[in-house]
């Protein structure tokens, strides 16, 4: 089976993501299984960030925290460039995909970056993981305030908008606390990680596949695919592909023009192009009335799956290039 996957023209990780989507469409998590899956995802994410904390030397974590230029450009892409693009596309897309889906496209441009997949892809591509952790976490923390403000200002949807502290607490408990625990336990955990380096690398990919299945299952349970026509979904998918491709190009080109090193540029690219389904879905239920939530979040759901597939391909390509470069440098060193 492993040799078959190695000969496949499609990367095994992408196949796993597509499989998760298909399984969720046919057999979505329901009832008690869905409740258990939610907890499994939470535990997987917590364990993921515990490992990141254990892998990073405290000096690297401190450098990630103080790298203000990196965090500023990522936040600018997330909360300035994306909203401007969303606004610019409004008059062009309303005649094509309708008012609700076009509003949904603008909404996806306003939500914060993903956390777990941004950092996992940065790690796979051998980028600045410490900086990605800080930037992605900061994006979600700031997004709890900035996203509703942007929705009110840009979408004129002020009815029922309110913010609770539960979203902030959830990010702290799932992301920052496990990371800090990993840092504290690093002397004890490092020998184990070195011994089992190969199995632990699948934690990054496995957590993303779990998130994809859980998110798609929720969409299927809510009957999102029966609300719109097939042609609208196809049109939205094309728009999402173009938007992801453009943002990947922009976030890859601009940081290098500004003098960022390779590792930092990779962190910008994978943190600055993502939009969080896990944060955007519950926030939409707070910000919008129940009758339009399904259509509002559909563009975000489509964009989320496309960004995972495209970024997984790019991260794998970067990772292989970095591995090949490291092997070449090792061979060139005198024995």
Automatic annotation (TrEMBL):
It comes from Gordonia oryzae. This is Bile acid:sodium symporter. InterPro entries: Na+/solute_symporter_sf, Put_Na-Bile_cotransptr. PANTHER family: SODIUM_BILE ACID COTRANSPORTER 7, SOLUTE CARRIER FAMILY 10 MEMBER 7. Keywords: Membrane, Transmembrane, Transmembrane helix. One of its GO terms (cellular component) is plasma membrane. The chain crosses the membrane at residues 12-30, 36-56, 68-89, 129-155, 224-250, 283-303.
């Amino acid at each position: 089976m492993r040799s078959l996957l190695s000969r496949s023209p499609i990367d095994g990780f992408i196949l796993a993501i597509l499989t998760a989507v298909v399984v969720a469409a046919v057999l979505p998590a329901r009832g008690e299984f869905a409740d258990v899956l939610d907890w499994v995802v939470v535990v997987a994410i917590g364990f993921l960030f515990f490992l990141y904390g254990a892998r990073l030397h405290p000096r690297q974590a401190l450098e990630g925290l103080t790298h203000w230029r990196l965090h500023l450009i990522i936040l600018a892409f997330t909360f300035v460039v994306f909203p401007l693009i969303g606004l610019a596309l409004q008059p062009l897309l309303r005649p094509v995909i309708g008012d609700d889906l076009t509003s949904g496209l603008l909404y996806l441009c306003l939500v914060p970056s993903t956390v777990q997949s941004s950092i996992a892809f940065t790690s796979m591509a051998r980028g600045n993981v410490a900086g990605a952790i800080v930037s992605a976490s900061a994006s979600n923390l700031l997004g709890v305030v900035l996203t509703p403000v942007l929705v009110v200002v840009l979408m004129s949807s002020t009815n029922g908008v309110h913010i609770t502290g539960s979203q902030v607490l959830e990010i702290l408990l799932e992301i920052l606390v496990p990371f800090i625990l990993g840092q504290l336990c690093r002397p004890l955990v490092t020998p184990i990680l070195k011994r089992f380096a190969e199995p632990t690398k699948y934690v990054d990919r496995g957590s993303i596949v779990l998130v994809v299945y859980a998110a798609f299952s929720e969409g299927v349970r809510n009957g999102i695919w029966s609300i719109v026509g097939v042609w609208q979904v196809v049109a939205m998918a094309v728009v999402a592909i173009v938007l992801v491709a453009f943002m990947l190009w922009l976030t890859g080109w601009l940081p290098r023009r500004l003098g960022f090193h390779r590792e930092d540029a990779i962190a910008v690219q994978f943190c600055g192009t993502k939009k969080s389904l896990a944060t955007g879905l519950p926030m939409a239920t707070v910000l919008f009335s129940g009758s339009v939530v399904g259509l509002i979040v559909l563009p975000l759901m489509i964009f989320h799956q496309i960004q995972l597939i495209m970024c997984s391909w790019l991260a794998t390509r970067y990772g292989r290039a970095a591995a090949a470069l490291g092997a070449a440098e090792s061979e060139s060193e005198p024995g």
